[in-house]
Each structure stands twice: as C-alpha cells, then as structure tokens.
Write a structure and sequence with these properties.
The complex is a heterodimer. Chain A is an alpha/beta fold. Chain A is built from 16 helices and 12 strands. Chain A has a 7-stranded mixed beta sheet, with helices on both faces. In chain A, strands 10-12-11 form a 3-stranded antiparallel beta sheet, covered by helices on one side. A two-stranded antiparallel sheet of chain A has the order 8-9. In chain A, helix 7 (about 170-175) links the parallel strand 2 and strand 3 (about 180-185). Chain A is globular, with a radius of gyration of 25 Å. The model of chain A has no long low-confidence stretch (mean pLDDT about 95). In chain B, strand 5 and strand 6 form a beta hairpin. The longest helix of chain B has about 40 residues, at about 335-370. Chain B has 3 domains: about 10-55, no CATH class; about 70-85 and about 350-440, Aspartate Aminotransferase, domain 1; about 85-340, Type I PLP-dependent aspartate aminotransferase-like (Major domain) (Aspartate Aminotransferase, domain 2, 3-Layer(aba) Sandwich), CATH 3.40.640. Chain B starts with 10 loop residues before the first helix and ends with a helix. In chain B, the strands form 5 sheets. In chain B, strands 2-10-9-8-7-3-4 form a 7-stranded mixed beta sheet, with helices on both faces. Chain B has a 4-stranded antiparallel beta sheet with strand order 13-14-17-16, covered by helices on one side. In chain B, strands 1-15 form a two-stranded parallel ribbon. Chain B has 13 helices and 17 strands. The chains are: A alpha/beta, B alpha/beta. At the A-B interface, helix 2, helix 3, helix 4, helix 5 and helix 6 of A face helix 1, helix 2, helix 3, helix 4 and helix 5 of B.
Amino acid sequence: MSHYNTLIFEKSTPGQIGYSLPKLDVPEVDLSNLGELRQDLDLPEVSENEIMRHYLNLSLLNHSVDTGFYPLGSCTMKYNPKINEDIAKMPSLAYLHPKQPLETIQGSLELMYGLQEQLKIIAGMDAFTLQPAAGAQGELTGLMIIKAFHEKNGDVHKNEIIVPDSAHGTNPATVAMVGYNLIEIKSQADGGVDLEALKAAVNENTAGLMLTNPSTLGLFEQQIEEIARIIHDVGGQLYYDGANMNAIMGKARPGDMGFDVMHYNVHKTFSTPHGGGGPGGGPVGVKAHLAEFLPVPVVDKSDDGYFFNYDRPHSIGKVKAYYGNYGILVRAYTYIKSLGGPGLELASDMAVLNANYMMKRLKKTYALPFDQVCKHEFVLSGIKDHPEISTLDIAKRMLDFGVHPPTIYFPLIVHGAIMVEPTETESKATLDQFADIMEQIAREGIEDPETLKQAPHTTKVGRVDEVYAAKALILKYGDMTDDQIRRD
Amino acid sequence: MTSHRYIPNGEQVTQEMLEELGISSIDELFADIPKNLRFQGNLPIEDALSETDMLRHATELGKKNQNLDDNICFLGGGVYDHFRPLIIDHIIGRSEFYTSYTPYQPEIAQGTLQMIFEYQSLICQLTGMDTSNASMYDVSNAAAEAVLLAINNTRKAKRVLISEAINPEYFEVIKTYLHFRGIEVITLPVVDGKTDLSRANDLISPETACLVMQNPNYYGTLEDVKQLGSMTEGKTFSVLITDPISLGVLEKPGNYGIDIVVGDGQSLGNGMNLGGPYLGYMAVSRKHIRRIPGRVAGLTRDSRNNRAFVLTLQAREQHIRRYKATSNICSNQSLNSLVASIYLNVMGPQGLQEVCRQAYAKATYLRNGLLETGLFNETRGNTYFKEFTLQYRGDAKELLDALKQENILGGIELDNNEILIAVTEKRTKEELDKYLEVVRRFQ
C-alpha cells in the first residue's frame, strides 16, 4: 500500500469552498475598471475539513525534533521550547504593522534592543544588526560590511576572500555574491587551518578570511590568534561563521579571538524552530571599527524612548525590508531569557559532554579520523576498517529505527563523512539508544550488506529516486502527465 | 546552574558520563581552548526567568505596544491586514512541520516535500509562470536575487533599469546588493503615478541586465505589465514584483511573457509580525529553470514504485556548487510557504476573487469619499486596486494624528503631504465611515 500522497489538486471538487468572508457592505464596483482580467484561476476547491485532513496526513510523514532524535550535524536541532511559540504569537507582540508609529511599538523595540545587548555579551562584539533573515544572509551582510570598510579606506584593490576547503558551502557562495574572488586553502588533516597555506595565500589583496570555530569537524581552532594576526597584518578582516556557537557560550567569544564580524544562526544556537527549512534569523555583530557600516536601521535608544536609527551615513544600506525576521527574534529573546547566563553556559557544557560521550562510544565501531576532544559535534568516516560500506546506506538504514541520520558527506574533506551533533537537549538514554542502533547497523553492514543497500525497510516511504526527479523535472502539478495524476 | 527543564541530563547522569569519559569535570572538555581565550567568570546575563516570570515579562512588553486589535489598520506599502483563516495556525502548529528541517532525507520528510511541490504548483497557477522555487526570505530579497539572476546571465551586464515606483524598501535592498557587484542602477521616472516605459526603450542595450517594475506599484497605481513584457522580449530580462492577492483578478503575468515574477506571500495568510518573517516567492519561465536560486522540489517515485517527492536540481545550490552556485541561500521561509499554500487552498478561486472584489469596492468607497471632501488631490493617476495615494491639501501629519486619536492608523505618510492608504476586505463600512467622519472635521 502506498503512503498518503494524494495531492490537494486531486482532492479538488468543483463548488467546494473552504473560506468564510462577510458580505460586501459597500456598493459593488465593476472589476473590469482594473484593465485586463484573467480568464481562469485554477486553484483547488476544497472544504476546510478536507484541507485539515490533508495537511495532518502530510505532517505524519515527517520526522521532526518533537518526534525523535535529530542529530543533524552543523544544524543544531535542539528542542524548540513551547513558550517561545506562545510568546511570539501573542497579538500584543505580533499583530503589528512594520510602519506603525514608534510610540505604538515601544515594547517590541525594547525587546529588539535587549536582544542586541544579549548578543553582544555572548559574542564579545560591540554592535549588532538583527536584519539578516538567515545565516547565509548574515554572511552576505558581513562580507558587504568588510567590503564597505575597505572601500572607505580606499583599499579597493582588496578583492580576495580566503575560505578553507572545510567551510560550509554558503561561505564560498557568499564570496561570489558580493563580487569578491575566492581563495580556497587546503585544511590540515584535522580540519584546522594550515598556517603555511594561509601565509602563502595572504597578500595586499586579501580582504578577509571566513572561518568557523569550532571548525566544521567540531574541533576548536587553537591557532586562532595566530590566524587573526596573519590576516590583520595584511589589513584583512576576520569573519566568524557562527554556525557552531552552541559549543562555546560562556566559554570563549569570537570577539576575544580576534574576529571582526560574525553572524549567529538563531535557529541553531537560540532554539528557534527550523520550520521545515526556515524561517531562520542571522543577526550580524561587529567590532566597533565596523559599527558604522551596519545595515539601517539599528534599534537605538534616546530620552524619548526606543527608535529605528536611520541616520548612519556609512551604512551599507538595507539587506532586507523592515527589521529582520522579528517573529523569530522574539523566540530567540525568550530563549535567552529563559536560560539566563548560567543556563546558556550549561547548554554548551551539556552539548559538548553529549558529543564527547557519543564519540567515545561510536569510535569503537566507526572510523574516527581525529581522535581528540571534540566540541558540540564530531565527524566519523564510515565503519571502521570497512570503507566499502557506503555512508548513504548507513544513513538510510537508520531511518528504520525512527531516528534522523546525521549530516552525511560533509565536511567534504572527510571521506564518507558522518557528522553527529546530539545537542544538549537529549538525554543519555537517547544517546545510548542511538549508539546501539549505529553499532547494530555496523554489524549488519559487515555481515549482511544487502540489508543496508535495500534500506529503508520499515518506513512509510521507500528509498526515493533522486535521479528520476532530475531527469523528469516535474516541478509542479501542471507538469504532471495524465497517468501520473490520480483521481479516486 | 546544574539543571534546566530543556536539558535532560541531571547531575547524577552527568557524573556517570564523566566517569565513562575518564574525566572529573566538564571543564576538562574545554581544555583545548587556549587559556587566554577562555571567557572568565559568568556571562553577565541575568539568571533564567521561570515560565511564569517570562510570560509576565512578555505581557509587560506587549502592554507597551498598541496592536491592531485596538487600531484600525489602513497601513499597507507591501504589508497588508488581510484576513488569516484560523485553520492556518492549527496546521503550522503541528510539530512535524515546524520542528523539522530541510528535507535532506526524503523518506522521512515527504510531508514537507509534498507541501513544497504543492506550493510551487500554486504559485505557478497564480502567476501563470512555469517554475517556482521553494521560497526566498521576502519580496525584497526575491527581487534582488531576480536581478542577480539577470546579471549572471547577461554577458555584458553593466546596469539595470528599475522603476521609481517600486516600494522604497525593496529598492534599497536591490541597491545594496548591486553596489557590491559594481552594477549601475538607472531609475525610470514616474508620470501620473505610472512608470514611464516610453523612456525605457532608448535605455535598453546589451549592457542592460533587466527592467524591474511593480504592479500595483508602491503608490497603488496599476502599471502596464503587457508593455513591460513586449518591450523587453528578446532584449533584456523582465522582472515583475506583484501583489499575490491582486492576481485573483488581474491577468497572469505569465501571459505577458515576463521572465521572472516575484512577490511577497505575507498577504497570503502570514501574520504581520512587525516586518517578518514573510515569504518571498519567485517564479520563472521555463527557459530559466536551471538559473533559479534556492531549493526546488520535484516529483519522483520511491523503491516501491509509489509517487514521492524530493529536492532536485541541487547542482545549482551552494552545498554542491559552492562558489559557482546560483545563490548562497540555504535556510529559506519554508513554514511561511506552508502558510501561503494553506491560504490559497482555503480561499480557492471563489474566495480569492471575493477578497479582490471586496478590497477593490471598499478602497473605492473610501477613495471617493475622501475626494468628495474636497481636501485631497489625485496625484498618482486614477487606477488602483486595494491601495491608493492621495495628496492632502493640509498638513498630512496633522490629519494622521487626528485619525490616530480615534484609533485609526490612516496610512503611510509620503513626501508632499501624500498619504498611501490600503484597504483590505477586512475593513467594514463602519470603519470606512469613521475614517471619513474624522477627515470631514477638517473641512
């Protein structure tokens, strides 16, 4: 039997309605005054209860943090507290138009100002913008700030950004978006920056370096001060990719390490939900010398109260309409308040403890290329002594046990990478169960490889054919052929 | 602090784990951080608020706001007070939707994947375009990415043409993106509220990447989309910013040969949230399918030969193509695209047309009423849909303040005492009459 996969278009029945609107209480006006009108509007016609059932059935096909373990490395799939959701939906904090008079949104401005202050403390930065909508947009904003800084100094020849080959794909993609040239440097075997390669790469054209610390291998970059010195010596700026901040809250701060500009992912570090892919939030922080370049407006305070400060002549301008994904920022603020300083430190403590505990157990059966203390995540390289067993098959087999597989094949510098990030919101019992599952899969992979190759077996959906999708390119209902459409 | 309700491992379990690791304290796990970089002391952020205290704090903050339950909203400018069907929050409140991430493992993410496929289908039905992506951050970013798409696919790209009548928030964002690419922005002037496309013909050259226009434009005036399509065809990319609600009645941009259509899905059931999170949609004609930024879901089958969905065309994206990717976008606005899908399904063809019919009739009622007072000038032409701009003959600030005294947010104040006024289907005759009554006091 097939899983539920009826399309809403296949449920459409002429004449069914799902809406309810009041009667028009002013005189009707002829719509043809608007000019050319459309002849057809081919939307589904479905009643409210059918719509509810459709989406509920779809939802049941998803794995989620609230369903079970989700150790997706680099994504920090921690628990999404319910109070965050409730507060973000309070009409007094949500039912607000972005162009309302300032005196009618003082509470929200106070919240945003407070969040900026908290973010400064946690990162050791001097100023923040809340505008970027996601981590990747934070990176974009950060590189724009770096470019504006060099432009103001007359250093227009600075047109190269150095990125280690272990970096997130968003780093090099962002370099291209701001019109910089990419200088990719090889990492050391342990994922750390190769200082010789870095020294060879820097020159008077170096605009900056993008780095995450802990690295994408989950290891703390111990040479960070030396790296910062090398970059600063040629007048470059150091960008901190905050994807891995969950490891170091209250332990070390990017601002103290020598970074000049950074972003957070509030949907990672500060527990805002991932929403099936978004929305997120990517606040960007800078050291004082870059503060004048932050996007407008920043939330500021005067004797008359809080206000949006647009009076910033060296600002890069706007990177997003209005003030960022405010509804998400409310959740991040609530999270930080709900943990407090000591709670944030505890979160990092337990995230790192959980990762090290799991790493110690799994390195007995899986290859661990870098056997040293990790931070919030660690990277395995397939099953020990069995490189022939594919990481993809291992991941697909995990689906049979009701857990989400770790991130696979990233970072690119590790063969068959399996990147595990348990987060602090998981219990030892969950970690033990997951380790049991991985050990069983390793045994199966060696003794009965077909079990892995054919996996998943017990999921509602069998292994999905990516190649077919790429060849057929059926990207909407209207692209489907008659024999692909089902009419019950 | 040793325990918190979000962190399950308590002191005893922590001890067991430490013993397993052969260490005596968690601090040893941070010994790899050079000593001089270790943060000394505690983060100076106040201790955890309990659930009760946090709720109280949020309520106190909320009291310092005045929300739109207590004020009648005629503010628009891209963000509109349309009705949000209640079913929306019941669906997006499902943990399986909001606590999952990007569907990297399609076998356990069909809910999200099919939702994206349906969303793409709905956006294409609405716009009449061939292909939609899975979402962008908001319309300003969708527009900026559309312009970058045009630039990246125009060999000699040096400049772009942008109507002066697009929303200034979007214009500012595009301008920021282009500054760092060294691309020149040339604005097309506005005559009688509409973009003067007659000038554009002379300005289009092989170095022109695209022409960007908005319909209805920022002032609410309806533009000539047909001309945008015909005059750019074969010469440069056309980028149209649209109000999705207006597409309930207006001709589909796809029928005018537009290359890229973008817009904001806020109107499609997403809350206002003081500016975000919203939803940028982007739909393109078939020939640009491999140039589109962001995620795309496609139809496929599983190993049991059942219909299924999966992310596809991933070779365009940052995690595969890196420096050569079509964009750096990773996280998008997935949950907001779910909202838009639910909204379009709930409204259906009849409901969406009814929203248009009511918004247009109510906007007309208020606009005519304002003009009848003799206190306003028509400065932006006389075609409009749900939003219009009129010039007040007195001090616009004074008028808006008087309206605010009566709990009416009367519109967005522009330069020269012009006021941009939005009227959705939610406004009642009583509310419109109240607006007019306050205005008549100034006669």
